[in-house]
Amino acid sequence: MDQSDAHCPSCGIPIEQGAYDYCPKCDFSLRGLRLKGLLEVDVVHSGEDWDRARRKIEQAVDDAIYEGHSGVKIIHGYGSTSGRSVIGPRTVSLMRSLAERTDGRFATDRNNPGAHLIWYNR
Q1: Torsion-angle region of residue 35: left (phi > 0), alpha (psi -120 to 50) or beta?
Q2: pLDDT of 51-81, one tens digit each?
Q3: Using an 8 Å Cβ cutoff, are 104 and 74 in contact?
Q4: Which overall architecture, per CATH, does domain 34-119 show?
Q5: Whole-model pTM over 0.85
Q6: What are the residues facing 105 on neighbouring strands?
Q7: 98, 99, 76: which is closest to 89 by C-alpha?
């Protein structure tokens, strides 16, 4: 993990996710904190078919959990070019299932109708 990606929310020192229960500089409790922001993955704009998109989504969720991200944003498109989204409805269904299995919270991206999120910050 790149240590520059995670910092103590109290003093700002770079910290490796999961390496400490307390900040080595200021003694701030780090237990259960997600020190990295949202992981964003586009699964449609590089010509992906459903199988490739599904694999990218599953990998993104695994990475978000393993790397300590607060959540994952999947950009799946909404059919603005073709008039209908092929991957979008399947993505929503898969993400709902993954959110339930990984104790996440599924949400719609309010700024992009072609994206959904799973939040892991409790």
Answers
A1: alpha
A2: 999 999 999 999 988 887 889 999 998 866 6
A3: no
A4: 2-Layer Sandwich (3.30)
A5: no
A6: 119
A7: 76
